[in-house]
Amino acid sequence: MDDILKDMTNAKFAYFEYRRSFIVKGLPESMTPADPHLQIFDNYIRDTSIRLRSVREPQTNRWERMLQKQILESDGVLIRRGVFQIAISEDEHAVFRTLERREIRKNRYFYTLGRSQVKIDVFLGPLWGLNIANACFDDADDVGKFPVPKISSLEISDSEFFLGNNLVDKSLEDIRAEYGKLIGNR
Asked: Average pLDDT in the 84-111 region?
């Protein structure tokens, strides 16, 4: 877990990835909420494409903080996501906290499916009940080779509705309505 937290802040200032995303019923049967995970606090700064992210590892109480900007590129088939981030200190975080008004909280769990690591985000607070699994890839060719997880109820890879900057202003009722619309269109 420590390596994952370190990778989030120190290893890359920018990265690009392809991603497949799924609404899932919950954690796989082999996992429990007490398993190792990260607590993520994403605060979306109004009228910008920037978020203030705080990540806590509950087992060690270690915190990492960063500013992130995300961009999306689409070729009409696949969406490629770029993330630019700057690690910030606790003092710098305190300055940006004054801008926080729109927060999403989630617990992130990790498991392996085939040869891919999958991140499962269990949303907390007003979005409790929403669980999203993400598998990320460096190469577009690997996207189609990834198997749909058995715990998946709907693939949402091409839906911008389920991106954090959109979810922050949604209610669970909004999510249920969008889910119903997407299920009806498939």
From this structure: 90
Question: Which residues does 68 contact at the CB level (< 8 Å), separation at least 6?
Answer: 50, 51, 52, 53, 83, 84, 85
How many other CB atoms sit within 10 Å of the CB of residue 4? Answer: 15
Answer for the pair 133, 118: CB distance below 8 angstroms, yes or no: yes
Q: What's the chain's average pLDDT?
A: 88
Look at 125 and 147; give whichever has higher pLDDT: 125
User: Other CB atoms closer than 10 Å to residue 123's CB: what's the count?
Assistant: 20
In angstroms and rounded to an integer, the radius of gyration of the C-alpha atoms of the chain is: 16
HSE, CB side, 13 Å, CA atoms: give it for residue 77: 4
Nearest to 149 by CA among 113, 116, 119: 113
- SS3 letters across 101-155: CCEEEEEEEEEEECCEEEEEEEECHHHCCCEEEEEEECCHHHHCCCCCCCCEEEE
Inter-residue contact 38 to 96 (CB < 8 Å): no
**Phi then psi for 53, rounded to 5 degrees?**
-110, 130
List, in order, residues 6 or more apart from 43 with CB less than 8 Å away. Answer: 51, 52, 53, 54, 97, 99, 100, 101, 102, 103
